Amino acid sequence: MTLAQVQQFNLNMVLECQWCGHKRLMDAGKLLLKFPPEMTMKQLAERARCKNRGCPGRSGAEVLFRLGDRKDDWWPRVPIIRGR
Ligand SMILES: [Zn+2]
Asked: Which residue from 24, 25, 61, 79 has the highest number of Cβ atoms inside 10 Å of its Cβ?
């Protein structure tokens, strides 16, 4: 999966922090202004830093996709719910 494909299929892309579980909705159009279209989700996750205050962000992040309205309509897995 590349950035270009995310935009092409108009996917809802969420970046989840592996440390604190903080989630951020990503805009493929905006990312494409900064990154090449052939950039993979793995490369993107490696570059991403958690913006949550107090989070060291050391564990990196993972890119998840919201595919539909149902609670489990996520790929490759549902997000982790932590804390509040
Ligand atoms: Zn975090």
From this structure: 61
What's the gap in Å between 55 CA and the centre of ligand 1?
Answer: 5
Asked if the structure places residue 7 within a domain, the reply is yes
pTM score, two decimals? 0.84
How far does residue 23's CA lie from ligand 1's centre (Å)?
A: 8
Q: What tens digit of pLDDT does each residue of 8-53 get? A: 999 999 999 989 999 999 999 999 999 999 999 999 998 888 989 8
> For the chain, how many structural domains are there in total?
1
**21 occurs within a structural domain:** yes
Q: How many CA atoms lie within 13 A of 29 on its CB side?
A: 1
Q: Which amino acid is at 43?
A: Q
Q: Omega before 37 cis (within 30°)?
A: no
**Host H or E run for residue 28:** helix 28-34
Tell me, in angstroms, the distance from the centre of ligand 1 to residue 12's CA. Answer: 20
- Is residue 38 a part of any domain in this protein? yes
